[in-house]
Prior knowledge:
This protein is mostly beta strands. The chain is built from two helices and 24 strands. It has helices at 173-178, 257-264; strands at residues 2-7, 21-27, 36-43, 45-50, 67-70, 74-81, 89-99, 107-111, 114-119, 126-132, 138-149, 156-167, 181-191, 195-199, 203-207, 213-214, 218-219, 221-233, 238-249, 265-269, 275-276, 282-288, 291-302, 310-321. Strands 2, 3, 5, 6, 8, 9 and 11 form a seven-stranded antiparallel sheet that branches. A five-stranded mixed sheet has the order 15-1-24-19-22. A hairpin with an 8-residue loop joins β2 and β3 (36-43). The two termini are 45 Å apart.
Amino acid sequence: MRGWFFCAVLAVLATWGAWGEEVTLEFPPPGTECPRTRVTFTTPVDMGVLGAESISGELLGGGDVLVHLESEPMTIKLERRGFCDDLLGEVYVQLVSLIGPVRPEAFLWRGGAQEEYAPFPAVGEWVHLATLPSGLREWRGEFRFRYEATMADPPGAYGVRLRFRVEYPELPSPLRELYRAEWEIMVTWSLEGLTVLLVHEPVYLGTIGPGIYDPEAGFGALEALENPVLVLTNLTQMVSLSVRAVSAAFPPDFSGGAEAVWQDLALRVDGGAYLSLGEGPIELGVLSGPGWQRYLIDYRYQVDERDIPGEYGAILEYTVTTP
């Protein structure tokens, strides 16, 4: 049996943010009767840092490159007291403003009556969260936030301001304004400057068997097609990708040695021409950031009469470089 495999290794790291402070407020101010609303919440809600650790191997698959930065659950607790606690209440939320280069369509939230992640309809537009029926003294709402980052998002600090409101629509207009409960929280996060390389899992080229030779066409080849390699950066610079041969493994009696392995092992990018790994480092492409590029790599080993039974392998090194 003569088998082939090779592999590449990737290491990444990142840091994460901290949670905010719990705040309790009372509406209206002390000394006012009917109804009294006490609200407890946490601000700021820090979703942390989007760095290299946020980039997972799942992005090697097809489709666009989106990286989700998500918060831990944030709970808002409402307590209604006083001799008018049987009033009907309505809870709303509003996106007040954006901090930094936030794309509003990429900031998602869920909570209250909204069970799935969705963007806010517009800055400044109120969204209904829940109805507080008469007689309900306590209500809890759990909220989560997410930012769908792309490599077009520049490094830096990001955030949004959210405003919450509890209204009592059954009260006359002057009292409705007096007893309205309104507060704000901030959701914050940041993006590191990063350049990341993701490489496919080890590849097995197959086994050389009797069918590899055709009396008329000669020896065939082993191939593994469309193995993804992904380069991404959010920096405004050029990033180039290259690959080189590092080491080869072969049976002790293989007469050609490592040089023969590299002569017969080749790769190509996105269906182009095969290039021999014995000719030194191979330039695969250039990415003018910010952005991403997914390369599909085909590997080919040309079989010949020098190949003897045993296990063969190769280690290749992919490298991204910047000016």
